[in-house]
Amino acid sequence: MSGDARLGTIEEIRARSEAFRRELQQEEYASAAGLKRGSDTAGIFERYRGLLAPSSREAITRRLEEIERALASGPAESERSALLDERRRLEYLRAELFEHFIAAEVRAISDALVTREQAATVQLAAGDVVPFRRLSQEMAATADRTRRGELERAQLAIVEEQLTPLLAERLHIESGIARALGQPSYAALWQWLHRIDLHQLRDMMLGFLRATDDMYREAMGWFMRKHAGIALEDASRHDLLAIFRGERFDDYFPKDDMVRVAERFLREMGIELSAGGHIELDLEPRDLKVGRAFCAAIEVPHRIIVVTSPEGGRRDWQRLYHELGHALHLGYTAANAPYEYRCLGDPSLGESYAFLLQYLLTDRGWLRRYLGFTKPQDYLFLVHLEKLAYLRRYSARLAYELEMRGDGGERELEELEQRYDEHMRAALGLSYPRSLFLYDVERSFYSARYLRAWLFEALLSKHLVHYFDEDWYRNPRCGTFLKKHWELGTRYGVEEMAREIGYEELTTKPLEKQLLRAL
User: Which of 119, 144, 178 marks a domain boundary?
Assistant: First the structure.
């Protein structure tokens, strides 16, 4: 089918959408894993021009309208169930097409951002050259505060000069697209597509910020004085990165044991790390590889790649186990599930399973059994304080993003920079670089995806302890339970899955209690 051909049926749209997604995932993997220089999605978007045309979205909308009329007529229960399932699938598919349409409109900017990030390097006063993509890792690994400041200034200079102009242009285009599609803002368009109330979530997380403020400032203030020798209000972002590095615990987290330990505890649950050969690990160091870990879902469930660059220490383990949670969910998804339930749906569900495995590294019993870590009190304080800081940062970021992408109309860049600074300072109590006001924002409100995942993971882990005991991570019955849920893929969102395991709604209370006990 040529790139500009009209797609005649919903099934054709589905097939082309999956093929398009597969090609994009492959391209993004190759670029982010450092297998190629730059990113070139333009050819992919061109080949799928027909898929991204208005006619595809209109065909789905017409069918959704037909379904609503059929449901209103009071069909028999079996027909009603089939109609509701089709409606769910089509809403997932429509959201995907809209997201891809927006991505297509800004693809040149997105490609340019990747190319500039890959190419950028800084030469420090001592003469060493550091790639832009490694600057945050270098800051975290550096005990010398002067050097950390130099690294951060170099990073921010690249962000300001090379990336912010492109990010600002992309933000403006995305806002214009939302208005052209009949929505008052990008935030309004996103909420219509994904059926998630961002304002309700924001208000809940602002409540979390208030509830944990005293706890955070007391614990973080003490920790910053002890490990950085400065007051919290005098600290910078690079100090936060450094104190959370936790290099004094590195001996408990050797690089060469990450995979072996994962294989061991998963095997005790009756789970294969490779999910029957579906999951690959890309752990090779490459100069162009991004500093973050990620999971590339090339073909769900048959080819899932976990990508990271281990250097030693607990953060390596955190990153790998987080992405393994994603990969196991995808790798155990039923191969005969519809496309929408294998690849689309609510990303918060996959993030919940990712957090579930990541936070095994905060479980006292797991640490003792698999790592021989018998006195982890100081370590547990560190990782729970880091978790609280992340939750507070993302809560503030969602509030800021709603202002940036919709609430009160478009704002001038200077005002956005000011508001970002105010939100971050209020949440973290330290100086956070203002110039990250566009760079520190993931596309498509992914901050909301993370927050909902944190909320659900707290309920899910509580459920697993209740039904499979505190050492659920070595219980074969728990492995059976998880695989059964993973087989569903992304059919349900986290709110529905919370109800499935007996909770009426997502709430911050379990997280607040968990953190209060730990800190």
Answer: 119
User: Based on C-alpha coordinates, what's the Rg of the chain?
Assistant: 23
- Say yes or no: 110 and 215 in one domain: no
* In-domain check, residue 105: yes
Residue 187 lies in a domain: no
Total of domains in the chain: 2
Q: What is the 3-state secondary structure (H, E, C) of 220-261?
A: HHHHHHHHHCCCHHHCEHHHHHHHCCCHHHHHHCCHHHHHHH
Q: Assess contact for 62 and 94: CB atoms under 8 A.
A: no
DSSP β-bridge partners for residue 129: 123
Angle formed at CA 327 by CA 321 and CA 329, multiple of 5 degrees: 110
End position of a domain, from candidates 70, 87, 119: 119
Q: Measure Cα distances from 293 to 130, 318, 389, 446 in Å.
A: 19, 10, 20, 16
For 296-336, what is each residue's pLDDT tens digit?
A: 999 999 999 999 988 878 999 999 999 999 999 999 999 99
The residue type found at 169 is E
Asked if 208 and 112 sit in the same domain, the reply is no
Q: Which two tokens stand for residue 266?
A: 């998963």
In terms of domains, do 295 and 438 share one? yes
Residue 175 near residue 102, CB atoms below 8 Å: no
Report d(CA 62, CA 404) in Å as an integer: 32
Sheet with strand 294-299: strands edge to edge? 279-282, 303-307, 294-299
For 136, counting Cβ atoms within 10 Å of its Cβ (0-12 exposed, 13-18 middle, 19+ buried), the class is middle
Contacts 24+ apart (CB under 8 A), 432-436: 432/236, 432/237, 433/152, 433/156, 433/236, 433/237, 435/156, 435/159, 435/160, 435/164, 436/156, 436/159
115 and 217 in a single domain? The answer is no
Is 202 found in the same domain as 110? Answer: no
Rounded-to-integer distance, Cα 7 and Cα 282, Å: 37
Give me the CATH number covering residue 288.
Answer: 1.10.1370.30
Q: What is the pLDDT of residue 407?
A: 65
pTM: 0.95
CA-based max dimension of the chain: 75
Query: How does the average pLDDT of the chain come out, rounded?
Result: 94
Tell me which residue range forms the domain holding 58: 1-119
- pLDDT tens track for 19-33: 999 999 999 999 999
Does some domain include residue 153? no
DSSP 262: H
CB 151 within 8 A of CB 124: yes
How far apart (Å, rounded) are the C-alpha atoms in residues 83 and 77? 10
86 and 204 inside one domain: no
Phi, psi of 299, rounded to the nearest 5 degrees = -150, 110
Statement to judge: residues 101 and 204 lie in one domain:
no
Report the candidate in 110, 115, 113, 86 with the shortest Cα–Cα distance to residue 100: 110
Whether 175 is in a domain gets the answer no
88 and 235 part of one domain: no
